[in-house]
Prior knowledge:
By secondary structure, chain A is an alpha/beta fold. Chain B has about 400 residues and is of the alpha/beta class. Chain B folds into 4 domains: about 1-145, Rossmann fold (3-Layer(aba) Sandwich), CATH 3.40.50; about 150-210; about 215-305, NADH-ubiquinone oxidoreductase 51kDa subunit, iron-sulphur binding domain (de novo design (two linked rop proteins), Up-down Bundle); about 315-375, 2-Layer Sandwich (Alpha-Beta Plaits).
Amino acid sequence: MAQITIDGIRLSVPDGANVLDCALDNGIYIPHLCHHKDLSPLGSCRMCIVEVEGKEGVTPSCTLKAEDGLVIRTKSPEIDRLRMLALELLLTGHPEDCSTCPKYGNCELQMLIQYIGPKTGRLKMRTKGFAPQEGNPLILHDMNRCVLCGRCVRACNELRGVKVLRYNKRDMETYVGTLHDKLLIDADCRFCGACAEVCPTGTIRDKLIATGAQREDAIVPCRAACPAHTDVPRYIRFVKQGDFEAAAAVIREKAPFPHTLGLICNHVCELKCKRGEVNEAMSIRGIKRAAAEGDTGKFWRGKGKQLPDTGKRVCVVGGGPAGLTAAYYLRKQGHEVTVKEALPTVGGMMSYGIPSYRLPREVVAGEARVIADQGVKFEVNCKVENPVDLLKEYDAVLMAVGTTKGVRLGMPGNDLSGVLLNIDFLRNAAMGKETGMGKHVIVLGGGNVAFDCARTAKRLGAEEIHLACLEARNVMTADDEEIEQAQEEGIHVHPAQTFERITGETCVTGVDFMNVEAFYFDENRRAIIKKEPGSEHHIDADTVIFATGQRPDLTPDCGLTLGRANSIAVADMENDKSTSVPGIFAAGDVIYGTKSVIQAIASGREAASQIDKYLGGDGDISEKLAPEQNAPAYIGHVDGFGHLERGKPEIDPAEARQDNFDQFDHGMTCDGVCGEAARCLQCDLRLKISRPRVWGDFAGKEG
Amino acid sequence: MKFIEKLRDLGVKALVNKTAALNIRETGLPGGNLADRLCEAIEQNKTAVAAALNNADTDMVLLQVLENDPEAVMRGISAAAVALGTENKVLYVPENHPEIAEKVASVAEEYGVTVKCEFVNLRENADTMLIHIATAADLAHAIEGDYTPGVWVSVDGAEVKKVPDGTKLADICDLTGAKGLIAGYVMRPVKDAQLPVEEAGIANGVVRVLREHDCVVAETQKRLLASRARSCGKCVFCREGLIQLEYEHREMTQGRGKPEYIDFTHEIGEAMAYSTPCTMGQNSARIALSAQDSFAGEFEAHIRKKKCPSAACVKLVNIYIDPRTCVGCGKCLEVCPHGCIEGRPGYIHTVDDFDCTKCGECAKVCPNGSLVITTGRVPHTPMRPTKVGRFRD
């Protein structure tokens, strides 16, 4: 250790430590610009100059090393003069008007100007004349604002090892760019964002604005987009390292159905994935699947949180993803939990809605078993008619009954024989019961459930299947891969159709359609549909399946106040899931309508936390399962990184899959998964970069 | 490799002693005794040796030493490397001379010297002993016993020669009509020609005589521009300081100089000297500082009187055709690139000042020397077409 004195304050610091960092760490502000805590000192900006006792002139404190007996002063008339001159010179090549800069208010240079107060109007100002480079994904370069502090160059080269950014010179102006001014993608940029993170000015910026409270979410959008906030970059990194078990543990920290999600999650994370801006989004679901399939439970089975029994009893009504998730975490908090399920097995839509060719039943059963092993009791074939009565036996009740009733659109012929409802049809098919389907089927609806119906019909032997929906092809809500695979299986897809009527006397003979010219919502959010005149046409069929939404199968007799579309009304969808009856809570589709498994899981977790608090617990259901991760900041250079293509799963051809309920998507190969994981931009690494230290943060301490 | 074996046999101590005995100086900046520098580098455990020109050097005349005898330079680098006990040997060739880098590549390879064609990054070379290319050659000659003491000099662009210590600048220059000198990185009054070469600070080998028609302001501006072109631009003072100084001097040559530019030059130039890590920033302003010290009158004339005493700054001079000697031959009219000379055969020609760029092409072709470029006033010239010989004041 070395004893050093800064402005009369004695500090004990490690020998050879960076004096500027020592000062800043100890609450002594020294202005600085080119220096950044995580980067090697450069000493080019001359803002951090100090006077060293016994040494003539001034010295930059960033390149000064601590040694015993070092005495420095950070303020003197000469230091002030030289700092003002340095900043004055620096600003001659920087735009004068701050107010039009997107970095206004967050700009380190702006704060430095306020602190130092350089002279103005003396020297020759110039505009560098670089056109802003907006042709890169995610990152914007505006070299006119650059003051050549070189932080980005050091971040890219030393911290990350990507070695894309460098100093270039053109027409006697030095600037930061790539070799031969290539686009970032062609220079093998890894789009980690470190350059934008360390840039003190508005020169290198994120195209997606990331400030204030949403900063972290904007920087790691996949994690923010996931309803359960699964730590996506962390498990992708484990998969890349080949540690599938640790990856599965990361997923399990937020959701007890990793394998199910790996197969059928609607992956909103992928929609927000920044890699999608570069070329193609990460196949996050495919990676999750691989993690779950490669998992033996090493890090979580029999481990994780299990608080001692509290003696409190909770009944969860409905064994779908929301109910099972809530039950699992409530059990872990020490409560006695019983799940009452109306159908013969738990799983809800995971067992009776989503067809088994997408989600094999044993996957759901296996993940439900983990919940049972945790001590949750399942009571199946047990339909609860009056939840309020349960409070006699239980301390709290969670209603997670989902939306189990198909919606029959109001149109002529909607009750003819041969008209079926999505949920009934899929449930009957799942249970091996007679569905009432004929040979010629028309599915009305364009979401994933509609495709589940159409493809199930195909597998049950329907000869001709049509699917029609109101939306145009590009705005259909079903996943593209669902639509494409259905078409491969010979299902006729008709987007942009109105359903005029179902024809037939007693039995269905077909449906009359018209073409839609335009479909949109007006300012009052009313749907406006413009039909193409004279486009009326008919498709023959003996069966029509409504796949136009589901609702909770509830009546006001259940004793709870109902809200829109038969849902159970709760105080606040996210933050307060209490219903009109104290002690009864609700979660999942039954409160917000049909969404997704991951949304239901998130809702179940929120409910579990709230019920735990209601029962006297602390409501903290978080747990740490995965081991510490070694996430190297030095990610290095990868040839052609930006052009690496998204990993593709192995999928059986249509002929092999369309007549059976076997799983046909075999996921990516082991190598394929690791390669896919290596495409990740690792946006989360950026959060580990130290934040700038500006004088405003020190103002209080300095008095 | 016999030479390197010879070095090893000699041993580090003898090698240093030999250098010390011959009193070899470091040619480049910051100068000093080579033996001392070697001892210092050994003490500091430097792990590499690199020979280079100073970054501040924009003339690069001393590259001739490398071109003429690359073997000597490689040997010198190798000798220093043996002294430091390192195999890490580098030769920096300026980034704008890839052809020289290519030329010496095979010799360099023979001696295990890596050739880099770039500006020397001082920060990356913190653990490197940097020596001047010419010093490396001197070191090699010292070991081989054919070292001649002296200073490497190129006078007015002539070939680089080694001038023995004690020789006065006046002895190697033609001082006819001289008003000053550029020696190394500074401008000096002509009386300094009495300095011996070793005291003139000729670290880049450059000696230039400034004569009556050389404008010190314009010369300074040119050298600042060359530095600006070479500066890597990473440090604030070097980059922005040079831009300001060059701009101010350019303004002076255009008649737009402001009195405060003199103070700015001192304020910025002096700060540059100690606010940058490499010789570029430290020395590139010296030309401006020394020029103002030695030739204050010329700066004064440019700024206050908007005159160039050397008649070199075209914006500050006048051009006219002497009506008493013009023979009306029309040669000037033919060559004027802007068509601003008026006249017809046998008549006295005149210059239309408005479009004239003062390029001086007309003066070159006039057989009678009738085209006058002057810093003084323009006399009366004919207002209307006047036959040769008919003009009266």
